[in-house]
Amino acid sequence: MTLVASFDWHFIWEHIPDFWTGLKATLKVAAIGIGGSLAIGIVLGAARAHRIPVLSWVAAIYVEVIRNTPILVQIFFIAGGLTQIPGHPIRLEPFTIAWLSVMIWGGAYNTENFRAGFEAVPWRYREAGLALGFSRVATFLNVTLPIGARIALPSSINTYVSVLKNTSLLTAIGFAELTDTAYSLESQSFKPSEVYFALGATYLLVVWTLSALVRLLERRLTIPEAR
Amino acid sequence: MPDWAGPVAHYMLHEGLTTTLRIAAYAVVGSTVVGVLLGTLLTIRFWPLQALIRLYVEIWRGLPILVTIFLVYFALPTTPVIHHRFGAITGAAIGLILWGSAQVAEATRGAVQSIPSEQHEAASALGFGWIGRHRSVILPQALRRLLPPLVSLLANIIQNTTIASLIGVTELLATGQRSIERLQLTPPGNSHAFAIYAALLAAFFCISFPLTRLAIFLERRLV
After folding, report:
1. Would you say B157 and B97 are in contact if contact means Cβ atoms under 8 Å apart?
2. Which residue among A67, A86, A171 places its CB closest to the CB of B212?
3. Which of A150, A158, A199, B198 could form a disulfide with A182 if both were Cys (CB 3.0 to 4.6 A apart)?
4. Contact flag B67-A168 (C-beta cutoff 8 Å)
5. What percent of chain A has pLDDT over 90?
6. What is this structure's pTM?
């Protein structure tokens, strides 16, 4: 019971506002990253599934490069590498680097999720749409997208949760999100067990809530005939 | 090749890549052993055990790996439970094992449950006990299904070893960053950050891409 006795609950209670500030930054970056990766996933996933020339190949290279390199190196490449391009430096705000890097990462995984989802839509559905006089774009928007996006839902949900978790790596470039807030709090207070247990509990609370919410959404959105 | 690149490449490959592969090796072996054990135990219909393993899996899958590594490396040694400081490489490896074993446990449960119940019954009829049945009959067959996710895990773990640089391990990413800092401080003061980060991306791609292809190939062949 010494663990409970020596644990400084008062310290955590006092610093809840700090955690809340960090959490807000994490959620903000994650929300933009998730929204962006949803858009990238639908557009590039459609390009991959319908084998649109050039765009499909560019998307394939993008997916393989992002999925086969560590996101931490991607973050440093955007934050530190692009500013040193010989002759053409690109400087971005820390907030821009934050959402851009998690969005690019999530977009690559989501492209793959949606490609698989769109390809799983039976061919005859599209043929039926085209036979009814829908244009190719209208067939995609009214037939392939509503069905394919639902097939892709479980795997894309995992990607969104990962996007949220990956925002913790923005600590590495000093972006003041949840993990970075805890890290600076620890270096001022020298209370690692209090700070990091509170940090872990906060992440679990957010991740488990998010998972539960999207499972609920998933149940409402599943294709009725599928079960 | 410009003359600054030779020593940098040498340092990154000898010091950095070796450490990266060492942590990855610890993490993959540890994750596999712990994960297969927990995943097999998860198929036993005894709810307190299942709840306990479920909790383990959900916690380490839910936490960002960086937070897990911070917990293991910074917080754990200050608690009375484990009053012992360990090195950064060990801390990173334990953090990766906690995350990896949760992934492997999930995959193992699926693989073990995919083995038809006749196999269990036949093994029991031959007089095998629970341990013998799983060791000699069920797990060797489940391993076929487990191989593709294990290869993917290896690729993911190699990528995630970069997180160890944040607790001061000089793995591949950290050696690249030290090279950037050193080049900046020595005349003419050009850090070559773009080239070095691009090289890091290329290096990880060259390791990871064959592994992810292999995982897809095995998935088609074996399952």
Report:
1. no
2. A67
3. A199
4. yes
5. 71
6. 0.91
